[in-house]
């Protein structure tokens, strides 16, 4: 059967890498000086413009490496940058679909985390609400969850439905796999 992954998984891994690279370029490396003749000294450490970006990037890469190594103990040396996602896909091609999907969801979740760190809340709005199906999800930074604008969208105790990034990611990956199964 070869690779059992969806094409979407490869696309999402690429997007996650792109966002991670963007995060570091835009929010860590100082912007170029207005005077092009003045070169930045090599000894000047790059300053994170947004606090926590470097830690976030390092923790994300670590998480993917740890997850992949737990699944496949004998893997090629891991890149500690945005290539880590492609590396993870490459090293897990032989795993059964269930375990591939767990990694795909983790990558998708990280991609959303990168987007939110860049202030890109629109990444959340691309998901329909898992409960009512509307397109009114919005990000609540305080609770680190997505809420639904539909005021009738509540759980059985009457509390507004909210969704974690992990839930949105697992739902996305599972929907992509269902769509592919139905297409073949
Ligand atoms: Zn809803």
Question: What is this structure, in a nutshell?
Answer:
The chain is mainly alpha-helical.
Protein architecture, described:
By secondary structure, the chain is mainly α. It has one domain. It is 50% helix and 5% strand. It is built from six helices and three strands, in the order αααααβββα. A three-stranded antiparallel sheet has the order 1-2-3. A hairpin with a 4-residue loop joins β1 and β2 (145-148). α2 runs parallel beside α3. The longest helix has 21 residues, at 7-27. It is globular, with a radius of gyration of 19 Å. The two termini are 13 Å apart. 26% of the residues are buried. The model has no long low-confidence stretch (mean pLDDT 90). Zinc ion is lined by residues 129, 131-132, 134, 148, 150, 153, 161.
Bound molecules: zinc ion
Low-confidence stretches: none
How would you sum up the global shape? globular
Q: Strand fraction band?
A: 5-15%
Count, helices: 6
Note the gap between the termini.
13 Å
What strand order characterises the main sheet? 1-2-3
Mean pLDDT: 90
Helix content: 40-55%
H/E topology pattern: HHHHHEEEH
Radius of gyration: 19 Å
Structural class: mainly alpha
Main sheet, how many strands, which sense, barrel?
Answer: 3 strands, antiparallel
Q: Tell me the total number of β-strands.
A: 3
Secondary structure layout:
Elements (H helix, E strand, L loop, with lengths): L6 H21 L25 H19 L12 H8 L5 H21 L4 H4 L11 E4 L4 E4 L13 E2 L1 H19 L1
Antiparallel strand pairs: 1-2, 2-3
The structure holds zinc ion (ZN).
